[in-house]
Design a protein that fits this description.
This protein is of the alpha/beta class. The chain has a single domain, classed as Ureohydrolase domain (Arginase, Chain A), CATH 3.40.800. The protein contains ten helices and six strands. It has a six-stranded parallel β-sheet, with helices on both faces. Helix 9 links the parallel strand 5 and strand 6. The longest helix has 20 residues.
Length: 278
């Protein structure tokens, strides 16, 4: 999916992650039964002659694709699988969260790593880009409980989003909070909120990491999570045995160097699924 953003290229993210040997690395971790469902068909905005329509941009087509994704996620849960979703811009989270709710009968607890809050509404968005709205839509659709949703790594938040976060009571940790409190304390609090009674879903936007470590992203912002902070966070979550699903988004090979962002994404997936140093 790249319809949720202005900058092109994140639609190639899943291929970059596969090229970084995700499957082989998962098997090396001892996970033998892996089913790659392939890429969902997303219309190309030029070739299909798509029109942006009224704001938000391309929302009708994005909803259609997210509906397809929700079915795949729901079916993965029904078969006893662990859904691992690769993006693509972050608008895909609408489909992931819908599928998790349908598959488990209740909304997942959410830990959302991102430079951005992605909780704009159609009336607050400055850009009209849907990848800045999936948290809002998931809450609106009943696929997300604000009380069990935690945002980590924020450093570029729109004025309307600030008001929405306060109004809904979503727990949000900015990078200033991470600096002051330390990642271990931040993640411990996130786990206590998101892991209260339901499996945790982690949605990891790679722009949550500092561009010095992850240059190949859709919307880079300086001052992000360090390499070790990101791994520590996912190692802590893995240790709880409460992780029920994982999503990695916004990898843009056009702006990457030697596929390093996709390689880092694979490393983070492994940490989330239990890989440790010793």
């Amino acid at each position: 999916m790249d319809l949720g953003a202005d900058r092109r290229g994140v639609d190639m993210g899943p291929s970059a992650v596969r090229y970084a040997r995700l499957g082989d690395q998962l098997r090396g971790l001892g996970i033998e039964e892996i089913v790659d469902h392939g890429n969902l068909a997303v219309p190309d905005r030029e070739l299909a002659g798509l029109r942006r329509g009224d704001e938000p941009k391309y929302i009708a087509v994005i909803r259609q694709v997210c509906d397809l994704l929700a079915v795949v996620v729901q079916e993965a849960i029904a078969s006893g699988g662990f859904p691992l979703v690769l993006g693509g811009d972050h608008s895909i989270a609408m489909g992931t969260l819908a599928g998790l709710r349908r598959g488990r009968g209740k909304a997942a607890g959410l830990i959302w790593f991102d430079a951005h809050a992605d909780i704009n509404t159609p009336s607050t968005t400055p850009s009209g880009n849907v990848h800045g709205m999936p948290v809002h839509y998931a809450i609106e659709n009943g696929d997300l409980d604000p009380a069990r949703s935690v945002l980590i790594g924020l450093r570029d938040v729109d004025p309307g989003e600030k008001a929405t976060i306060r109004a809904l009571g979503v727990r949000a940790f900015t990078m200033s909070d991470v600096d002051r409190l330390g990642m271990e304390r931040v993640v411990d609090e996130a786990i206590s909120l998101a892991g209260n009674g339901t499996p945790i879903h982690v949605s990891f936007d790679m722009d949550g990491i500092d561009p010095s470590e992850a240059p190949g992203v859709g919307t880079p912002v300086k001052g992000g999570l360090t390499y070790r902070e990101a791994h520590l966070a996912l190692e802590e979550i893995a240790a709880t045995k409460k992780l029920g699903s994982l999503e990695v988004t916004e990898i843009n090979p056009i702006f990457d160097r030697e596929n390093r962002t996709a390689i880092l994404a694979v490393e983070l997936v492994l940490s989330a699924l239990g890989k440790t140093i010793l």
